[in-house]
Amino acid sequence: MTRAKRSKTTEAPPPPQTRVLVLHGPNLNLLGTREPDVHGRTTLADIHSAMDARGRAAGVVIESFQSNHEGQLIDRIQAAAVEAVDYIIINPAGYSHTSVALRDALAAVAIPYVEVHLPNIHAREPFRHHSYFSDRAIGVICGLGAYGYMAALEFALTQLRKT
């Protein structure tokens, strides 16, 4: 009995998958129950599920990360550069109006990002009208509720197809 010889061919590793990191700032873990008249009834899990499904359909890995702690968000942004994340979608929430450190982390990694806010921040209290992130963002989406995340993802997917 003879055995067929297998040729030793080296297969190229699969191409790295495109990755989008979705960052959610403080109190967004309470979506669905926190001020539903302002932020809606959609939960963070609902948002991630919809984004993940859309990402899979496009062959893109979607990772979601929420923290109420500024330092953890900064650490996650810095890790994104090492992990070769291609795009960031960020809802800095209350840090929009206060965190130069989070802004500096995004500038340091130079990963393109879209800033998202569920309510229209310009229709809220005056201190919410300014964001430390908007001038460096590729785009800003506010006032579209949970759909704003999907709009940001669709935009990111369009941008990533161009590269």
TrEMBL record:
Membrane-traversing stretches: 137-157
Keywords recorded for this protein, A-Z: Amino-acid biosynthesis, Aromatic amino acid biosynthesis, Lyase, Membrane, Transmembrane, Transmembrane helix
Pfam families: DHquinase_II
Biological or metabolic pathway of the protein: Metabolic intermediate biosynthesis; chorismate biosynthesis; chorismate from D-erythrose 4-phosphate and phosphoenolpyruvate: step 3/7
GO MF: 3-dehydroquinate dehydratase activity
Binding site for substrate: N91, H97, D104, R128
Catalytic activity: 3-dehydroquinate = 3-dehydroshikimate + H2O
EC number: 4.2.1.10
Active-site residues from the entry: H117
Site residues, Transition state stabilizer: R34
Purpose: Catalyzes a trans-dehydration via an enolate intermediate.
Protein family membership: Belongs to the type-II 3-dehydroquinase family.
Subunit comment: Homododecamer.
Name of the molecule in the record: 3-dehydroquinate dehydratase
